[in-house]
């Protein structure tokens, strides 16, 4: 299982943890290990060589030994750490950029909507935007960011509540 994680999936940084390295040290320090634990010795040397290769590029690799990592932390460790608010390759914390033209288009459409007062602001704006890839959440967040709407709660769909007749 560890071979699959480290070698086949190329996620050996998941094993860059101090307790694992202590175990590798005990295995490699055993005089009978090269014969009795041949595969473990080869595996430990492989993982350690990958760690030291990464540590040559990433000064924080030694600190990372103190913590167990998930796939996101492994990517940051190998590909570089991101700054707060910066876009992640996995998509978390995505910041959507809007061009000035798109902002002006959104502003004009919102002002037209205010005059017409349709039922739902976002539903009336989305099909009229030139960029078809904008999501409801992106448009709502940007309206708030531009100061056209005080809060996203102002844009929530009003749900029709059906009361039982009785």
TrEMBL record:
Signal peptide: none annotated. InterPro entries: Timeless (IPR044998). Pfam families: HTH_TIMELESS (PF26019). This is TIM protein. It comes from Polyodon spathula.
